[in-house]
Specification:
Length: about 450
Amino acid sequence: MLQRAMTVAGALAALAMLSGSSFAQDQTQVRAASIIHAGRLLADASNGRVLTEQSILVGADGNIIAIQPGYATQDGATIIDARNRFVMAGLIDSHVHLTSELGPNQLLEEVQLTVADQTMRGAENARKTVMAGFTTVADLGANNDAIFALRRAIRENRALGPRIIAAGSAITPDGGHADANGFAPDILNVLRSISACSGADACARATRRQIQAGADIIKITATGGVLSNTAAGVSQQLTDPELAAIVQAAHMMGRRVTAHAHGTDGINAALRAGVDSIEHGTYLDRESVRLLRQGNRYLIPTMMAGWWVGQLAERGGVLTPAQTEKARRVGPDLVRMVRMAHAAGVRMAFGTDTGVSPHGQNAREFQLLVEAGYTPLQTLQMATVNAADHLQISDVTGRIAPGMAADIIAVDGDPTQDVTTLMNVPFVMARGTVAKNE
């Protein structure tokens, strides 16, 4: 998993906050590269406390040095004026597909676009994503070479985009949701997934090879999917022994497993096998809720995907007949599931499945969650502290605190009262670098 050593200054500052030592008064002597003057600051969405007139000191290493009351200055530090704005931690989307976007040419592009094309499109979409205020994403399904190259380029500051936690190719049953479908047999042989498998041994091997290739997290398709170009439904497709083998192989190599799952049978089979999270979860039941409450598990509802494919199904011209039939059923059922899961107290992390919907519009998910019964603050928690915990990066991002990465956004208005303010984010800092400042 991704790990980051805390800077000396950040570690000392954090220690001072815990111990109350006199160093807390001296930490401002550490040189800041930039200082954000925040009129209102939500440093940690888990407590919902909004502070006023605060200064966030950011070091040259891209990490937060300190938070101070008042508007501090330092010789040589760049002052960023957000005195009239609401400042909070950068947003986290736990489910995107940066290298693709659903459109009318989807089938043709599968045989037209090279890996280089996919990478370049990924770079463009990564830029849109960070400009929308999302400073971290989990990419859950893409060509290995394309997404791992993009992850590296962003990490090395050679491309503009969010921090990427990448799954690469999803582990899928032969002919399943993440495999090639709907093409002539000779084309299928070329396009079939490198991570498609049948049998427990083969699926364990595919998982190990995906980790060897560079996967930060393992994505599996436990059930059929809406956008598979096949009339195979949305029920369980990986067998119980295959699911158990994948989870065991991944956990033994230090990777969490997240499962695409719509049908009740596939959701519960995946949870019994030990997966760490469920993507979509459209037809979860009481047993699903019971299993989700065991351990450090999350549901990522991706309401945006269900809403968007429902729009496309009615509009026509994009989805195939097999996709259209599933989209009309699953979209409304996903909304009902989220309301039920909310009432049952299931822990959720924010995720959109963007790439199904257009890149850069990720924040529409906040509105859909509020319409389903969540408070604005609860949705902010999903997209910061919850998502960071789900992705095991709570020591890196998700809060504004000394030692954390300077992933910071500022908006006009108050998103704890009106989440639509997140549809237009005028200021974005990602890992200490200003990506946008309007």
